[in-house]
Amino acid sequence: MTIGLQGFAMNKSELIEELANRSDLNLKVSETIVNLVVDNMKKALFDEDRIELRGFGSFHIEYYKAYTGRNPKTGESIQVSEKRLPFFKVGKDLKERINQNGSE
Question: Is the whole-model pTM more than 0.70?
Answer without folding.
Answer: yes
